[in-house]
Write a structure and sequence with these properties.
This protein is mainly beta and 119 residues long. Helices cover 0% and strands 58% of the residues. It is built from no helices and eleven strands. A hairpin with a 4-residue loop joins strand 7 (67-72) and strand 8. The termini are far apart.
């Protein structure tokens, strides 16, 4: 089973910055993609950003130009630098990993960390 350690959430004013970090462990297989999803209050979980083991990032349109995702394949860590935060970025942010166990893909999720953007 895959375990995650997430950190970096908190309260920040609009226009501020936060950095989320996540470390994954416990998988016998290489992690194909890592990233972050979020669930705003009263809404469904949505993609924020992911990055493959080859370094290809994918961002939600709402965060392009403000958020930057990075990854360390050796340490199995993924970071999300969030700049120019907006109140609509308020959500629980979940670390994510997609792992191919033989040929079957599995998605794993962390416990989540709260990000609140408010003045």
């Amino acid at each position: 089973q895959v375990q995650f350690v997430e950190s970096g959430g908190g309260l920040v004013q609009p226009g501020g910055s936060l950095r989320l970090s996540c470390a994954a462990s416990g998988s016998r297989f290489s992690i194909y993609a890592m990233g972050w999803y979020r669930q705003p209050p009263g809404k469904q979980r949505e993609l924020v950003a992911t990055i493959t083991s080859g370094g290809s990032p994918n961002y939600a349109d709402s965060v392009k130009g403000r958020f930057t995702i990075s990854r360390d394949n050796v340490k199995n860590t993924v970071d999300l630098q969030m700049n120019n935060l907006k109140p609509e970025d308020t959500a629980v942010y979940y670390c994510y990993a997609r792992i191919y166990e033989t040929l079957t893909p599995y998605n794993y999720w962390g416990q989540g960390t709260q990000v609140t953007v408010s003045s």
